[in-house]
Every structure is written in C-alpha cells, then in structure tokens.
Amino acid sequence: AIAIRKVLLGEPITIFGDGNQKRAFSSCECLNLPIEQLLYDRNGHVFNIGSSKPIRILDAAELIQKVGKQLGYDSDIVHLDERKEVKLAWSSTEKAEQMLDFEDNTDLEKLVREMFEFAIETKRYLLPVNKVDYEITKNLPESWK
Predict the structure, then answer these.
(1) Would you say 100 and 39 are in contact if contact means Cβ atoms under 8 Å apart?
(2) d(Cα 137, Cα 145) in Å, to the nearest integer?
C-alpha cells in the first residue's frame, strides 16, 4: 500500500538495500475461512496462516511499477540504505494446509491492481500521512530520521 500510494502521488518507490529480501504477501480473502475455522475448532494448535510463496522485494516493486504504468502512473524505483533486517521471511503453512485444507490462492498482480483501483476510486492516497517521532534512534535508517 505504501508503494502504491507513492506511485499515485508521482513519487518513487523506495527499497531498502538491494531488494533481494524475500517476503510473501496474501490477500485477506484467502485468510478468512481458516481464521473462521480456528474460532470453533483446533483448540491448542498454533497455525501460520499466510502466503508461503515468497517474492523478492525488488520484483514486488517492479510489479507495482508495471501495474501503475498500465493505469497511467509512471514511477521510478529508488534504493535507500540497507536496514538491519531479516533477508528471508515468510510463513510455513504446511500444517494449515494439512489440518485446515488451507490454500493461499493470492494472485499478487490482481491484488495490486485491485489495491490501485480502490485507492484511485476512494482517493485515500491523498490523505495526509502522520509522521512518527521515533523513541529509539539506535540503528534507525538515516532515511527514517
């Protein structure tokens, strides 16, 4: 959502470091059924509910850039200083797949397009963003200060 907002405002998409970090993104629609199941069953079990399909942050940024361009919004990608963060992070959903018949059917490009369309339609990207005064400054990326 942050990157989509930046594209709609004509700002560059920012990536911390080289963009080779991997994350996984899910549509909330895929999460509703397993979460509902957990309200009534599987007491005492712990499940990871989310996507197990990682994508490089750079590839995700390029996808957002591509969809934005298709909708008439052009943007660049800018690399900022690397943060001290985990390089590879996503859920292992095997247990949820086996015990809850969970399946993440997220189509990331479709999801990004829907998010763009929602933002354009509602003009929510025009709302002001509140700046945060960080209490902790040790190891804070320079671009956050």
Answers:
(1) no
(2) 8
Per-residue three-class SS string for the chain: CHHHHHHHCCCCEEEECCCCCEECCCCHHHHHHHHHHHHHCCCCCCCCCCCCCCEEHHHHHHHHHHHHHHCCCCCCEEEECCCCCCCECCCCCHHHHHHHCCCCCCCHHHHHHHHHHHHHHHCHHHCCCCCCCCCCCCCCCHHHC
Percent of the chain past pLDDT 90, that is, above it, reads 57
Phi, psi of 84 (to 5 degrees): -85, 100
Q: Is the pLDDT of residue 51 over 80?
A: yes
The 8 Å CB, 24+ separation contacts for 59-63 are 59/19, 60/3, 60/23, 60/25, 60/108, 61/3, 61/13, 61/15, 61/19, 63/108, 63/109, 63/112
pLDDT tens profile 30-49:
888 888 888 887 778 888 88
This prediction's pTM = 0.85
